[in-house]
Amino acid sequence: MFLTSYSCRFISSSIKMPPKARKRKALEQVTTPEENVAKSSDSGPSHWLIKSEPETRMENGVDLRFSFQDLKAEPDSTAFWDGVRNYSARNNMRAMKVGQQAFFYHSNTKPPGIIGIVDIVKEAYVDHTQFDPKDPHYDAKSMKDNPKWSMVDVKYVRPTSRYIPLDELKRVHLAHKTSGGPLAGLSLFTKARLSVMPISKEEWDFILDMENQEKK
């Protein structure tokens, strides 16, 4: 600014939330529980891509900007990944495990692209913003005794050696669709609406190789 087994905990005034300088906005639209709900398993994805907006955008008086540099500036360079309001993206977050890594992707900017890498440092727990009427991500239908939305904590690791823009990733994706290469099924294009998506080990390794190559 931001998706199994998970350990949810209810938010109360006595629980201190991790610090967060700015609100972030999930980019996907709200879906129904029946729409594209992913099921987790121990053999699920081990890498991820999370999207966030690096430029100021106000909603209900709150700046939804949360860039990779904003994450780095947080205490211990760690923040909770709140505001996800899509069931598939939420279930992806619930599948995340401590120690896994994700690409941090700048969206709704020119050009969008991958800017860095983060660690998952806390598995899914209750997203408190769903209960706050003043929060842009408030969900009046979510109950504290049956919360609908979760979040994880992520920690800044490092920037990629270079910014990897969407147009370059798309060119490789289209070429790999023809040749059967590693990025043929990249979720960034097959599930573009999601702000939290799985990345296979093969895709992860290929993109890591891309960061050390000149833009194609």
Spell out the key features of this protein.
216 residues, 25% strand, alpha+beta, two-stranded antiparallel sheet
Topology, please?
Layout: E1 47-52, E2 58-59, E3 62-63, H1 68-73, E4 78-80, H2 87-94, E5 101-106, E6 113-126, E7 150-165, H3 166-179, H4 187-190, E8 196-199, H5 201-210
Parallel strand pairs: 1-5
Antiparallel strand pairs: 1-8, 2-3, 4-7, 5-6, 6-7
Characterise the protein shown here.
It contains five helices and eight strands, in the order E-E-E-H-E-H-E-E-E-H-H-E-H. It has helices at 68-73, 87-94, 166-179, 187-190, 201-210; strands at residues 47-52, 58-59, 62-63, 78-80, 101-106, 113-126, 150-165, 196-199. It has a six-stranded mixed β-sheet. Strands 2-3 form a two-stranded antiparallel ribbon. A hairpin with a 6-residue loop joins strand 5 and strand 6 (113-126). The model is unreliable at 1-19 and 34-41 (pLDDT under 50).
Query: Helical content, roughly?
Result: 10-25%
Give the overall shape, derived from the CA principal axes.
globular
Q: How widely separated are the two ends?
A: 27 Å
- Roughly what fraction of the amino acids lie in strands? 15-25%
H/I helix tally = 5
- Radius of gyration (Å): 17 Å
- Secondary structure class reads alpha+beta
| Major β-sheet annotation | 6 strands, mixed
Poorly predicted parts: 1-19, 34-41
Task: Name the strands of the widest sheet in spatial order.
Answer: 4-7-6-5-1-8
Order of helices and strands: EEEHEHEEEHHEH
Mean pLDDT: 86
Please outline what is shown here.
Helix content is 19%, strand content 25%. The chain contains five helices and eight strands.
